[in-house]
Design goal:
Layout lengths: L1 H13 L7 H14 L3 H6 L4 E2 L7 E3 L13 E2 L3 E7 L3 E6 L5 H11 L18 H7 L2 H4 L3 E5 L7 E4 L4 H5 L6 E2 L3 H9 L3
Antiparallel strand pairs: 1-7, 2-4, 2-7, 3-8, 4-5, 5-6
């Protein structure tokens, strides 16, 4: 947990704020609200939007699952790190399926797979399902592993650069259909 929390604390200090204060919470909420994309921004933001995904990067997008009628719940606005690419889609880690605290812990654990230590636009995670399984990182990532089909993506992909992963991870996954965040997080917690 060291790197991401250290980065947040450094940003707070730079802004002249003490961690765990009302001012620090307000600052973090403002950062989250500035990052939280809308459907329109996904269509219009030419600098951050992409037509496809790259393994190890992070993306927001709108999604309408093919099998939604048979799912107990699903996320309409995933926050995903793709880990395997297929002809018709990809396998990814949808961080919304775990509580924000667990997201930070998971991202910190996955940071050992970063291709560099810059945490900027050049940074990505060198991940695959097999790697997660072999290293034991999969136990915490298990509830996040989801398959996505390009034909059911309803927007462009909004790429979140590595310097914003910590903030993006704290955005609540409040676009679940069929269940509340708390129910999804509780069920996910049983898997690890």
């Amino acid at each position: 947990m060291a790197y991401l929390l250290k980065r947040i604390n450094e940003q707070l200090a730079k802004a002249g704020l003490q961690p765990r204060t009302n001012q620090a919470r307000a600052w973090l909420r403002a950062k989250i609200n500035n990052l939280k994309p809308s459907r329109q921004s996904l269509l219009n933001d030419k600098g951050r939007t992409r037509d496809t995904t790259i393994i190890g990067r992070m993306y927001f997008y709108y999604y309408d699952p093919k099998t939604k009628e048979s799912l107990p719940y699903y996320d309409r606005f995933p926050l995903v790190i793709p880990i395997e690419q297929y002809r018709d889609g990809f396998l990814g880690l949808n961080l919304h399926y775990i509580h924000p605290k667990q997201r930070i812990l998971l991202l910190d654990e996955l940071s050992e797979f970063a291709n560099n230590s810059k945490y900027d636009a050049t940074t990505k995670l060198r991940l695959s399902y097999d790697l997660l399984r072999r290293t034991g990182a999969a136990y915490q990532a298990t509830p996040c592993i989801k398959r996505y089909l390009f034909a059911h993506v309803e927007s462009r992909f909004l790429e979140i650069t590595a310097n914003e992963w910590d903030i993006a991870a704290l955005i609540p996954g409040n676009n679940f259909v069929g269940a509340s965040n708390e129910k999804v997080w509780a069920e996910s917690r049983k898997q690890f």
